[in-house]
Amino acid sequence: MRITDLGEITGSVLVYGGPYSNLQATSALMERADGLGIPPGRRICTGDVVAYGAGAAATVALVRARGGAVVAGNCERQLAEGAPDCGCGFDAGSACDLLSRGWYPHALAQTPADSRAWMADLPDAIVFYHEGRRIAVLHGGATDIARFLWPSTPDEGFRHERRVLEAETGPLDTIVAGHCGLAFRRRFDGLDWINAGVIGLPPHDGRAATRFATLDKGRVLFHRLEYDAQAARQAMEAAGLTQGYHATLTDGSWPSTDILPAEMRPPLS
């Protein structure tokens, strides 16, 4: 595992995931961070800078310029290798698998070589000290970059990932992750597991606003990010990215829920 150690960070830290090629949301986040007085040196991304949206190259450029430290997501790893799919591990033939065949080729085509080289150099995890706590940031899980850990995942699933990660990093007080698209906090065995959510798509709650988090004074605060979702949708439509995620930007509903664990899926009508 490739690990970057940022040492000790003083002051509020902004953590965010999944810009997803959504330039409008990423621009809004940087403006929000500036407004909160959090400079790039205290911003950390949990990965998947490029994915569903229309603005891959511009989003990467903005994150590299103002987004702070970034851990590799599965999309970064796959794009860096020129792989034929996003590496999410979707079941073959599932709705998510079929949808990814629409957006991933566009993402690959729109990500220039210098951006792919930058992605190849990204770490698998970031560690730092903050307000007396040792914190690690990764994308999905330590056993699998694309592991989905949900709010409903049993504690043992989180414990296993913690054990594997701490074998590489040493003892931790907090783990910050991304990938699943939902912001949440779990506490077990004295450790906080925080998912910062993603800024590029809403969390399937019927609203266009997306999510990010801040760490401050020993607390995690989850924030809604309001931005010009209609403009982001129009950019996707202009690029021909109309398989379903374009509508998610404005209606707040995922085009498929088959990736969700059974207990989190809506009831059949």
Tally the beta strands: 11
Q: What strand line-up does the widest sheet have?
A: 1-5-6-7-9-8
CATH homologous superfamily grouping:
Metallo-dependent phosphatases
- Spatial shape: globular
Low-confidence stretches: none
CA-based gyration radius: 17 Å
Q: Could you tell me the mean pLDDT?
A: 93
- Structural class, from helix and strand content? alpha/beta
Largest sheet data: 6 strands, mixed
Count of helices?
8
CATH architecture: 4-Layer Sandwich
Q: How much helix is in the residues?
A: 25-40%
CATH topology: Purple Acid Phosphatase, chain A, domain 2
CATH class identity: Alpha Beta
First and last CA, distance: 44 Å
Order of helices and strands: EEHEHEHHHEEHEEEEEHH
Beta-strand content estimate: 15-25%
Total of domains: 1
Detail the topology: elements first, then pairings.
Blueprint: E1 3-8, E2 13-16, H1 23-35, E3 43-45, H2 56-66, E4 69-70, H3 74-81, H4 95-110, H5 113-120, E5 125-130, E6 133-137, H6 155-169, E7 174-177, E8 183-188, E9 191-196, E10 210-216, E11 219-225, H7 229-238, H8 245-251
Parallel strand pairs: 1-5, 2-3, 3-4, 6-7, 7-9
Antiparallel strand pairs: 2-10, 5-6, 8-9, 10-11
Helix pairs in contact: 1-2, 3-5, 7-8
